[in-house]
Amino acid sequence: MRSHALKKKAFLATAAAAGITMVFPVLCAASENDIQTYTNTDFAMDTVVSETLYTTGDDINSKLTSVLTDVETNLLSWTNESSQIYKVNADSGKDKEISDELSGYLERLLKIAKDSDGAFDPTIGKLIRLWDIGGENQKIPEEAEIKNVLKDSGYQKVSLDGTTIRMDEGCSLDLGAAGKGIGCDVVSDFLKTQEDVSGMILNLGGSSVMAYGEKPDGSDWKVAVTDPRDVEGDYLGAITLEGGEFLSTSGDYEKYFMEDGKRYHHILDPKTGYPVWNGLDSVTVVCDSGLLADGLSTACFVLGMDDALELLEKYNAEAVFVDEDKNVYLTSGMKDRFELMKNTYTVKELQ
Q1: Total Cβ atoms within 10 A of residue 350
Q2: Which of 29, 125, 171, 251 holds its CA 20 to 30 A away from the CA of 332?
Q3: For every one of its 351 residues, what pLDDT tens digit does the chain have, with 9 covering 90 and above?
Q4: Dihedrals φ, ψ of 36, to 5°?
């Protein structure tokens, strides 16, 4: 078995290699209103974090990284004993009180799960850990092992009553498929309390990007999307974002290993227990919520392009689909904001 490991280089290379998208670097002088530009590269939520902040106040990038770390440590982590998700998993089968914040996130995620007919499912924690793709013990599990953990998954096994959660015994939550999007939402909410901040671009590992406010010169926020089969080379294209929009990409190349010429990647089908093989290489979703963008990109990848369109319409989200034949398909609202940069791909109309 040959494992694929993503290299960590200097930031610009890292953002492309570690995830799916990266933000074009911005050079901007202070405006007449004394708006300053502060950039920062750090590590949080188990990924490289890139921040470019426009403000008339102090540099708060380090504070924003701390906000992300707090979300991971105290809310979302399934390994940290102080995390709410860890405690919910440990007490599966019992009623458990959780915060308003986590209850709100779970309510929205369970709705995506229902609306996608389980294509997105936050209860496949045991399945994810069984495969451990990208981890130290990644492997192709035995079919019996997969069936054994699947019996403990299913979003229907989780119920919410206000801030009381009940989960069937043996079920295990893993919010990794939406965690970075939640992180973007938390940062966005924090920035709304900072009157000095006029704009920011936040990039979590390349797979989740948030645009907030505007640049001093009024130019567009542009995010480059990596060619899913050339993750350390040229970009596939660029997407224009507006302030208040979030972007998330799910692809079969972030974490994977090859065996017998087959790609075993980290996006698992909750119904079969195996990686999704449906002809798609990546799906990029843009909408007005980080949580939704993240959850929907996973759901759309699992569903496949045809079945994903109805889900996207329901959530007023736009998407870019890239298939294994090097075709790029755009939803109607994406046509005027996507620019193809790779001549080995062809943009085609959605039928």
Answers
A1: 14
A2: 251
A3: 434 333 333 333 334 433 334 544 444 444 546 899 999 999 999 999 999 999 999 999 999 999 999 999 999 999 999 999 999 999 999 999 999 999 999 999 999 999 999 999 999 999 999 999 999 999 999 999 999 999 999 999 999 999 999 999 999 999 999 999 999 999 999 999 999 999 999 999 889 999 999 999 999 999 999 899 987 778 999 999 999 999 999 999 989 999 999 999 999 999 999 999 999 999 999 999 999 999 999 999 999 999 999 999 999 999 999 999 999 999 999 999 999 999 999 999 886
A4: -100, 155
Separation between Cα atoms, residue 270 and residue 263, nearest integer Å: 18
SS3 314: helix
Q: Please, where are the H alpha helices in the chain?
A: 11-18, 61-71, 84-90, 100-115, 125-131, 143-150, 176-191, 290-303, 305-314
Name residue 323's beta-bridge partners.
Answer: 280
Strand partners, 347: 328
